Amino acid sequence: MSEALTAGKAGGEASVTDSDVLSASISLQPIRRPWGSIAPARLAALQIRLTILEQAKRAGVGHVGSALSVADIIAALYAGGMDVADPDAPNRDRLVLSKGHAALALYAALHQRGWLTREELDTYCGDGSLLGVHPEHRLRGIDFSTGSLGHGLAMGAGAALAARLQGSSRRVFVLLSDGECNEGSVWESAMFAAHQELSNLIVLIDMNGQQALGYTRHVLDLEPMDRRWDAFGWDAQVVDGHDVGAMLDAIDRLDPVTGPPHVLVARTTFGRGVSFMENQIRWHYFPMSDQEYERAVDEVRAAE
Ligand SMILES: Cc1ncc(C[n+]2csc(CCOP(=O)(O)OP(=O)(O)O)c2C)c(N)n1
Ligand SMILES: [Mg+2]
């Protein structure tokens, strides 16, 4: 396993193959290299899913389906999409996890990068821990505290404008949920970002069709999502939110220097990877039983 995680060729393609990914026995050791190719990102997604299940079960908390929904997006970002080689570099890229209730997926990625120790990860939702259900900016690697939905794009637009004013090359990524796009604050921020031509701002929307206790198409239909953003002056495209390679390609092709801000409308499945959670409202809030946990882990391992 460790070879599969650390193998790679400097400046070129990783030597990790699909069969490595398929046959790897899964551990939760940090992945450090290589970044920027598809196989490690797929493996990162697998490990993120396993960490989500393990920690949610250990802590006895929910939001499992919400975190699984963005596991591939987070993997694509932290395994090549974002420049995050050095957590302390002032010009590294930033992430606003606007759907803060999926923080566990982010903690899993930070652990893989080595920014969070195993001991820290194991404090998730414990008394006095900085690793709560929602992310807290005092924690290393968390750029913005979130959890109150609808505010992340405003923070991201401000951060992108600040980067430009500082002459910094850093990009700002914002991961929005579809449910929070029901909020007017998102669209106010979208107008502001387009007006300012914040080309260094990249939004990904987790279009899983669910929002807590209802399906988005019943609560407040958002389609056609890409055309709405296009009408607001954004560079909009639809991507498969579970295809890490497609997302890495799409991010690579974006112009972060000139032109409008960018949005990737990522089609996703709530609970992706665990059949009995997929598209099920129950898995927004419910914790797993012992049997459900074991079945979920088996399915995630088997899928890769
Ligand atoms: C302003 C605000 N209102 C309500 C909530 C409570 N809440 C938590 S998650 C959620 C909706 C979840 O749907 P979505 O945002 O699409 O995320 P998903 O479950 O699909 O991950 C709500 C209403 C909140 N966090 N913030
Ligand atoms: Mg949703």
Can you describe this structure?
With 304 residues, the protein is an alpha/beta fold. The protein has helices spanning 2-6, 18-23, 38-59, 64-69, 71-81, 103-113, 118-121, 152-165, 184-195, 216-219, 225-231, 244-253, 290-303, and strands spanning 94-97, 172-177, 201-207, 210-211, 214-215, 235-240, 262-267. It has a single domain (2-303), classed as Rossmann fold, CATH 3.40.50.970. The chain has a five-stranded parallel β-sheet, with helices on both faces. A two-stranded antiparallel ribbon has the order 4-5. Helix 12 links the parallel strand 6 (235-240) and strand 7. Helix 5 (71-81) crosses helix 12 (244-253) and helix 8 (152-165) runs parallel beside helix 9 (184-195). Bound molecules: thiamine diphosphate and magnesium ion.
Write out key terms for the chains shown.
13 helices, Rossmann fold, binds thiamine diphosphate, 304 residues, 7 strands, disordered N terminus, two-stranded antiparallel sheet, binds magnesium ion, alpha/beta
Structure summarized in a few sentences:
This protein is of the alpha/beta class. The chain has helices at residues 2-6, 18-23, 38-59, 64-69, 71-81, 103-113, 118-121, 152-165, 184-195, 216-219, 225-231, 244-253, 290-303; strands at 94-97, 172-177, 201-207, 210-211, 214-215, 235-240, 262-267.
* Span between termini: 14 Å
Assign the CATH class: Alpha Beta
What is the CATH superfamily? Thiamin diphosphate (ThDP)-binding fold, Pyr/PP domains
Our count of domains comes out at: 1
Which molecules are bound in this entry? thiamine diphosphate, magnesium ion
